[in-house]
Design a protein that fits this description.
Shape: globular
CATH architecture of the largest domain: 2-Layer Sandwich
Structural class: alpha/beta
Oligomer: single chain
CATH topology of the largest domain: Signal recognition particle alu RNA binding heterodimer, srp9/1
Mean pLDDT: 95
Radius of gyration: 15 Å
Number of domains: 2
Number of helices: 2
């Protein structure tokens, strides 16, 4: 099986706040939007969608059991930019052959930003 495109869909109770976080704080590009569903294009063929659980057939998991893990070019710059916006982030640590930190979105989903260690 060859996957051509991927879309992770998060079902949220705090839909408006979560959409604003990904759109305004992380500055993700909105590729599709309705009154209860917003799709962000992260890279070519990679999407993240935020759905309002009140309008969906699937309920929120209150952020439990989900980690979104994204490699970035500069983990220090990403960490600093988020702190400058008042976002609560963990300290940067070394783990799994990279440097990384975590934060939570308004719904409680854990987000990991990481950068590989220099070879």
């Amino acid at each position: 099986m060859k996957v051509e495109q991927t879309n992770t869909i998060l079902y949220c109770q705090k839909w408006s706040e979560t959409v604003a976080f990904y759109r305004d704080v992380l500055e993700f590009f909105v590729s599709h939007q309705t009154d209860w569903f917003v799709e962000f294009q992260l890279t070519n063929g990679v999407y993240l969608s935020i759905a309002d659980e009140r309008r969906a057939t699937i309920q929120s998991v209150d952020g439990q059991g989900i980690t979104l893990s994204w490699q970035v070019a500069d983990v220090d710059a990403t960490h600093n930019a988020l702190q400058q916006q008042g976002i609560e982030v963990t300290s940067i640590r070394q783990k799994w052959g990279g440097r990384l930190f975590y934060l939570l979105d308004p719904e409680g989903h854990r987000i990991e930003f990481w950068q590989p260690l220099e070879a």
